[in-house]
Amino acid sequence: MAKTRLQDVADVAGVSMKTVSNVVRGYEHVSEKTRLRVQQAIDDLAYRPNASGRSLATGRSGMLALVFSDVSIPYYSELAHLISELASDRGYRLLLEQTSGTLEGERAVVSAAEGGLVDGVIFQPSLLSSAEIAQHRGDVPFVLLGEGPAPLSVDHVMIDNIAAAAAATSHLARLGRRRIAFLGHELGSQTQTSKVRLIGYQNGLEQAGLPLDLSLLIASRSVNAGESAQAVREALDHGLEFDAIVCRDDLAAFGALRALQERGLRVPEDVAVTGWDDVAMAALVHPSLSSIRPDTRTLATWALDMLEERIDGYDGIGRHRVADFELVLRESAPAVS
Amino acid sequence: MAKTRLQDVADVAGVSMKTVSNVVRGYEHVSEKTRLRVQQAIDDLAYRPNASGRSLATGRSGMLALVFSDVSIPYYSELAHLISELASDRGYRLLLEQTSGTLEGERAVVSAAEGGLVDGVIFQPSLLSSAEIAQHRGDVPFVLLGEGPAPLSVDHVMIDNIAAAAAATSHLARLGRRRIAFLGHELGSQTQTSKVRLIGYQNGLEQAGLPLDLSLLIASRSVNAGESAQAVREALDHGLEFDAIVCRDDLAAFGALRALQERGLRVPEDVAVTGWDDVAMAALVHPSLSSIRPDTRTLATWALDMLEERIDGYDGIGRHRVADFELVLRESAPAVS
DNA sequence: CTGAAAGCGCTTACAG
DNA sequence: CTGAAAGCGCTTACAG
Description:
Chain A is about 40% helix and about 15% strand. By secondary structure, the first copy, chain A, is of the alpha/beta class. At the A-B interface, helix 4, helix 5, strand 2, helix 10 and helix 11 of A face helix 4, helix 5, strand 2, helix 10 and helix 11 of B.
């Protein structure tokens, strides 16, 4: 049997399509009697409105795209969870797009081949240049997340990465640490994320009156926990001495904890460690991880606010907003006593 | 300016809409000369086909829904990553739906209010009964994941949870453990997942000739790492003695590792631990976690295969397929020496 | 409060 | 190989 359409319901209920449509969309000015008869027909026929038909007629799909490199990375999966819930509260569904952190993947997002699929895009770029982002896909509302380059024309939310990295570094200095390493940036060319966090680390050292020692910058062959652990092992093998590590992100920190414990070094007694993102596991590992916690709820709320404004027609220049962060202190780098 | 449509391109190129459509969709029987002229017009006008128009005309959206409780749970985020990639290879995009693990959330999935939005649904239910699932949303192709109840009418892929739990338990017994606990099932009514894993645990004990001791069943107020850690702390406080733990999932295992280390118990010397899912963190914690690794790639591939067959018109009874698993041995419960 | 009709932007037999 | 026309299933002014 063919799918039931609006017209079928109208026929059965003995009204026009317009009236059925009014009932379906909950329009209020329908007489109670008519509404009941129509609802009965809808139930009898198990009618389900067709989303494509509606989208085509209204010009809206009720969907937002959420784009980042890889949803299996804890920070992104937790962000996806949050944004999915908040978007759902506003009546939007979420389309998940992964770029694999490649330039081609990110370009595909920006120059999307199809229109009308989503009403807006939330995009956390890793590699793309500001100039390329500026020519984003046609006229779809766009909002950028993260510390990457944001063209002036596009809305953007972030936290102050430099201040956050400096806060972590300063905290370790206040704990009396004098040889504070930085772990987890790329071995080759740096992502914007690594760059700004390294700058903040340097600022933190300066504020504490500590010298910058380039040998304390422990790069990772790849931005993940396994390679970060390996980088720490190799640093220890080469006799590098340090009493604290500021990690680029929690994954790097988990790698560091693992490598330090393998070598019998105590955290935080021998080496204090801070992470970044405050993913759920940070509180669960042993020792638990001190970490920079970005205010992701505010981040996500602002992103959705701005996106909805654009969807509703706002066409001004890009807004750039900075959300708060907090350094959450746990066992790996406890509060100063 | 209004969005450019197929007709606009046709006008500029001086051909019919049909011809433009052929070029856009890569239909081969178009003369080279015409194709070039049309492509030029497409580029000049920055034409983007409208997805809703296409969906309405073809009856397909090119989207699949992926549904489970919460994408921030590592197993699900890793599964979403994998399925997203595999679906993308087949030309599908992924719509993410979270149920929050609530009955209402799962019911909403099954009785979806809209049609035509997705071509198929991949759904891992937690709570819904088989009978309710059987009346799934209209005529949308459906495939079920996991050890939940699957009605005969619906396609379903899973691993043999009973065998897997028995394998973990047997392994601990072969390590010489005699008081093997089970951790992480619900305090109240059990999910199907917990039920089958508990049965497998019991089978494993039997195979090893060990008695079932109900006091060794350590339930958790909530299925997550934090509550599992708390449950272990309380068990230790009450003087419960055990030398191994089979955990319901990796999160419970991470909780167990944390609680045991807090109390100065050595893993695996004092207590050996196995997890379930083999999420990325399992290899990164210290000590690293032995874990049941379901063959998720096969699971996902089969799910997509069956879904595509249904999308292509297959209308037979449900297929039920069982993928492999493997017990990955790491430090927390190493190979028998 | 309700109806008849046009239109959203595509694809697809059907002709030629 | 290409064109003219109908149709996919909705919504929305416009009338009444």
